Amino acid sequence: MRPSPDPSPADPGLRFQQGRVHINARRRRADAITLGHLALHIPQALVSLLVVVGPSAFFAILTGVPVWAWAGAWLLSGVLAFWQPVEAMLARFFLGLHRPTPAELARLRPVWREVTARAGVDSAAYTLWVEESSSTAASPATGRIVGVTTYALERLPEGQLAAALAHELGHHAGGHAWAGRLAYWYSLPASLAWHLLRMVVARIRKKSAGSAVLLLLAVTAGALYAVILTHGLVLLALTAPFLIAAVGRSAELRADRFASSLGLEPQLTVLLSNMPVPDRNGGRDKGMTSPLTRLLTSRPDYRTRLHALHRRIPPAR
Fold first, then answer.
1. Which residues contact 141 (CB under 8 A, 6 or more apart)?
2. Domain chopping of the chain, boundaries
3. pLDDT digits (tens, 9 = 90+) for 142-154
């Protein structure tokens, strides 16, 4: 791993201010963005419940255990998403993260301790994971996991690395991380069923057009049944991707304001100004600028982030 890059003349660097660390017990909370994120995932959770009910009926016949017990067990399984071994499994196999090497940890630890000390949180309350990526922004982490990319580790000076870590900590302070994990967990059956359905439809279309029509009718009937059973709430799933993306963009701006509140606004400004092109466009390729694409991206472009940051809106506490 490369040594820590030296700050450029335009880079403000990082002044370590650690002394006695005052832990703020009320730093972690659920803000309005978190509550909105959870509410928007209710339709997906309902679809997941319907997906679970089908196999539950089969197991009820085999075991004699009623359907409601199987469905209830799935609803209660959400607590597993907060169990550390499950959290580590999700990070490794679903998010593609890995534990930092000793060299990576040696670079991260002092910067992370400085960020958490400024925020008034215990640095040991979170675990640092690394994502192999050429982006400055890590994939959204969950629970007590804070992600950082190899690009940030190898290319960013300490000040900008601190700003990136403070931004990620801002998601945790606002409750965005645990809400994202809970939403992901309860939407997983619906997502798996959707991918399975697409695979089945693709194979049937290759073999028989008539069978594809029958399958389409069956899916339509199932969709109508879901609409009736949920009193139309499932229809919100059509607009949910756009609303969830909008909430995601607001969460990014809120996390920027959190980093700014820790005295890292100059470092974050330099970080945003020097972002690679995909990050500048909110994670989109340069040519992907259609209105639909912009509405579906969960990360605002760097100009929007800089403009919001310089308005100096005080973060919610």
1. 91, 95, 97, 129, 147, 168, 171, 177
2. 29-317
3. 678 898 999 989 8
